[in-house]
Design goal:
The complex is a heterodimer of chains A (475) and B (335). By secondary structure, chain A is an alpha+beta fold. Among the domains of chain A are: 83 residues, Uridine Diphospho-n-acetylenolpyruvylglucosamine Reductase, domain 2, CATH 3.30.43; 111 residues, Alpha-Beta Plaits. In chain A, the strands form five sheets. In chain A, strands 13, 14, 15, 16, 17, 18, 19 and 20 form an eight-stranded antiparallel β-sheet that branches. In chain A, strands 6-7-11-9-10 form a five-stranded antiparallel β-sheet. In chain A, strand 6 and strand 7 form a beta hairpin. In chain A, helix 8 runs antiparallel to helix 13 and helix 13 runs antiparallel to helix 14. Chain A is globular and about 65 Å long. With 335 residues, chain B is α/β, with parallel strands linked by helices. Chain B folds into three domains: 107 residues, Alpha-helical ferredoxin (Fumarate Reductase Iron-sulfur Protein, Chain B, domain 2, Orthogonal Bundle), CATH 1.10.1060; 57 residues, Alpha-Beta Plaits (2-Layer Sandwich), CATH 3.30.70.20; 138 residues. Chain B contains 15 helices and eight strands. Chain B has a four-stranded parallel β-sheet with strand order 6-5-7-8, sandwiched between helices. Classes of the chains: A alpha+beta (475), B alpha/beta (335). Chains A and B meet through helix 2, helix 4, helix 9 and helix 12 of A and helix 2, helix 4 and helix 5 of B.
Chain lengths: 475, 335
């Protein structure tokens, strides 16, 4: 693919363009298993620059792949067909904080934790809180409709998007949404952009809702001998009308992994549940915690500890916080891959799904940890395998096929908070063939030349192992 | 590394035989990117190829043969201050800086010459006084004879950690480092000026990147919180050259705090040098009629950012009581 590098340099300055292998190779992958080289990297700093780049890309039919922190798990930013990676990290200004309107205006490259650090002195916070908030950008969170540990109470990114400025494929700038928490004024196009994974437009400014930090937060931990009991306790907590601000699960594989990686000394039981309540009235928080404790006990939960203290809460949560990366340390000779990573299931199916995942993994010679924000129905898993063996990748494909057939059969979703990208496209397409033609029509209407992150979601290849290079050396 | 170790190091004959052993460790890296949250190189350049994750990717590409080393790739590999904020954040337990050091050795053996973030010596200015040699904990500086038999100070490009202690100690200013990371003396001078003149801060805090700064960075957003102090991240308290402290006073700071690691906790043993240097400096300013309280040295262990915040607040209160340095005092610095 030929790209007019000089033209791009004129738009953003030569220090913000690279077609050097040192950069191309790095930007060829994210946190997924995929790897495909872009043709150039461009770092815009203004809306006008993004518009000019889009006009150039549209006229030359060059793929444009917007990228935030590169922490996506499904290959959203892997440029399967080459093209320009639009690195948005330099558009990282917090433009306005308006406590009186309970909103912020930010550029897309603002890091989630940086925004929260700016809000904290005002007693405010931005709630979605994905585990990667230390590097995740707001633009990336919008693209994936990210959520996190507090989604059980506070919801996902889409619940905080009031409005946004978007540069369309032809370079036009549009203002979507509003400055208000709700609106009923025409198509809610800002919602259409949420979760669109960079396939419909480039978000260049976002107006996001914020909330007051609750005065009290209490975190509790309960051990369970059986994973099934832990799963049932979670379902019961939700269906009994409790209001946790966090409800997390970790299975034994996860516990062993964090013990090995971080030397935490956690009791290696069948599963751990972490549950939190928050609010401005301590008695109300206590009431919620006690209610959840009772349910845990009903399902044989034991060793229950709780704390209001920040340092103690951080310690209790540290294993869960770093579980994802720790899985790499579970067993010598195997590695942790970001496959089948964030399915969602109805609340009543958590225990059944958790057990089923272990069963499918075992039958197919791979290891899968089960954890996640199960209070919101989000089950995180990772496929742990020997990346050098070709047969293990075939095993992984079988697992994905079988697992998602099960998830869809119980009314679950392919992805709850990370997006479809490349690696989750085959099972998603199989389950949602009904809406693919509609999505393609929307895509064609907004991006007739198919330049915005092409070959993703509904247009992603079915053979994900062959379609991109795996980032691991096999054999 | 001792002499025997060095001999062993250079016995190899090309390729990536040292770094190749890390292939499985590199596969353990899930590429989550948490390693670059506090990476000073990333904060300086904002290219992903400057992040620890990026460097590991490049090394992986080279050892698996997917890419060949180029000068630019090699330069990236040689840019690191070994602050280890990356490894501390990596729960996959990937030994990031060990991998980097072995890759450096492989690349040097392949004949690459590099600048990176390592110390650079201007032969015309160097008087071969050996001060830098005695200061370097990594034995990275050594006098060697060139082809004509002329002695010159040399830098071991694998062992140099870029801490900059030699730079701060060099009496002739012969040692420098790559510009762009706000670590060279001219850059730090400009930063001091900017904080006092433009941001109107009364206190300059030189905070060590190893111990306290990561915590500080995570506890507030310096650009948005209005404070009476400005923080300059220093790669080690030992690299805060005396002229930087005097510079701050001359520019109008009411006080200067140097925040370093406690004795025996400094990776580079730079804190001992700082302590000696600041005692001397306090005596110097006293001779000039300036209250020695205008310079303060404080020790903080890793994670003691709350203690640092309190120490800064207390010092600001003290400075508020004694007020700015009188003009007559300031004139005396310039003689």
């Amino acid at each position: 693919m030929k790209i007019d590098i000089e033209k791009l340099k004129k738009i953003v300055g030569k220090e913000n363009v690279s077609d050097d292998i040192a950069d191309l190779y790095v930007y060829a992958s994210d946190a997924s298993v995929h790897h495909a080289m872009p043709t150039a990297i461009v770092r815009p700093q203004t809306i006008e620059q993004v518009q000019k780049i889009m006009r150039y890309a549209n006229s030359s039919k060059t793929p444009i792949i917007a990228r935030g922190a590169g922490s996506g798990t499904s290959g959203h930013t892997v440029p399967i067909d080459g093209g320009i990676i639009l690195d948005m990290k330099k558009m990282n200004r917090i433009l306005d904080i308006r406590p009186e309107d309970m909103l912020v205006k930010v550029e897309p490259g603002v890091v989630d934790d940086d925004l929260n650090r700016a809000l904290k002195p005002m007693g405010l916070f931005y709630p979605p809180a994905p585990a990667s908030s230390r590097i995740a950008t707001i633009g990336g969170e919008i693209a994936a409709n990210a959520s996190g540990v507090r989604s059980v109470k506070y919801g996902a990114t889409r619940d905080y998007v009031y409005g946004m400025k978007v540069v369309l494929a032809n370079g036009d700038l549009v203002n979507l949404g509003s400055n208000t928490r709700v609106h009923s004024s025409g198509y809610q196009l800002e919602r259409l952009i949420v979760g669109s994974e960079g396939t419909l437009g480039i978000v260049v400014e976002a107006t996001m809702g914020i909330r007051p930090i609750p005065k009290f937060r209490c975190l509790a931990v309960a051990n369970f001998d059986k994973l099934e009991d832990a799963g049932n306790a979670i379902s019961d907590i939700i269906s009994s009308g409790c209001e946790p601000s966090m409800l997390e699960l970790m299975d034994k594989i996860g516990i062993v992994a964090v013990n090995k990686a971080m030397n935490l000394g956690l009791k290696e039981v069948g599963a751990i549940i972490l549950f939190e309540a928050d609010g401005n009235v301590k008695e109300a928080v206590d009431f919620e915690i006690e209610k959840m404790k009772k349910i845990c006990k009903k399902y044989n939960g034991k060793d229950i500890k709780k704390s209001y203290d920040l340092a103690e809460r951080t310690k209790l949560f540290s294993g869960r916080k770093k579980l994802f990366a720790s899985l790499s340390r579970y067993k010598e000779g195997i590695i942790c891959t970001d496959l089948a990573d964030d399915m969602g299931v109805p609340n009543s199916k958590i225990a059944e799904a958790a057990e089923k995942i272990h069963e499918i993994a075992e039958r197919n010679n791979v290891i899968m940890a089960v954890y996640g924000h199960c209070g919101s129905g989000v089950i995180h898993t990772k496929i742990m395998l020997d990346s050098k063996k070709k047969s293990q990748w075939e095993d992984a494909e079988k697992v994905i096929d079988e697992l998602y057939d099960y998830i869809h059969s119980v009314g679950g979703v392919t992805s709850a908070e990370h997006g479809i990208g490349l690696s989750k496209a085959p099972p998603w397409k199989k389950a949602r063939s009904d809406i693919i033609p509609v999505m393609r029509k929307v895509k064609r209407a907004l991006d007739p030349n198919n330049i915005l992150n092409p070959h993703k979601i509904m247009d992603a290849p079915d053979n994900w192992v062959q379609a991109t290079n795996l980032r691991y050396k096999v054999g | 590394m001792g002499i025997l170790g060095k001999l062993f190091y250079f016995k190899g004959n090309g390729d990536f035989k040292r770094s190749r052993k890390y292939e499985q460790e590199l596969n353990k890296c899930i590429r989550c990117g948490y390693c670059y949250e506090l990476c000073p190189l990333f904060k300086s350049f904002y290219w992903e190829s400057d992040t620890p994750r990026g460097k590991l990717l490049l090394i992986y590409g080279m050892i698996t043969g997917e890419i060949k080393p180029t000068q630019k790739i090699v330069d990236k590999i040689f840019q690191c201050f070994y602050c280890k904020n990356c490894s501390d954040n990596c729960s996959a337990g990937v030994p990031i800086t060990d991998i980097l050091t072995d890759a450096r050795a492989d690349l040097i053996e392949q004949g690459f010459d590099v600048e990176g973030t390592i110390a650079k010596i201007d032969e015309d200015l160097c008087s071969i006084c050996h001060i830098c040699e005695s200061i370097c904990k990594y034995e990275a500086l050594e006098v060697k004879k060139d082809k004509e038999g002329k002695e010159k100070m040399t830098v071991d490009k694998i062992e140099c950690r870029g801490c900059g202690l030699c730079m701060a100690a060099c009496p002739t200013g012969a040692i420098s480092q790559k510009e762009g990371c706000e670590i060279t003396l001219p850059e730090l001078h400009n930063k001091v000026k900017e904080i006092i003149k433009e941001d109107k801060k009364k206190l300059i805090v030189f905070a060590c990147n190893w111990s306290v700064f990561p915590g500080m960075q995570l506890s507030e957003s310096p650009s948005l919180v209005k404070t009476p102090y400005g923080i300059i991240v220093s790669m080690c308290s030992g690299r805060v050259a005396p002229e930087l402290v005097l510079d701050a006073i001359e520019e109008g700071a009411w006080g200067v705090m140097v925040a370093g690691c406690p004795p025996e906790e400094c990776d580079h043993d730079g804190n001992y040098k700082t302590r000696r240097r600041l005692v001397l400096l306090k005596n110097v300013i006293k001779e000039l009629g300036i209250d020695p309280k205008r310079i303060r040295l404080e020790w903080f262990s890793t994670g003691e950012s709350a203690k640092l915040s309190k120490a800064i607040d207390d010092y600001v209160k003290e400075l508020d009581k004694i007020g700015p340095i009188k003009k007559i005092e300031k004139r005396k610095i310039g003689g």
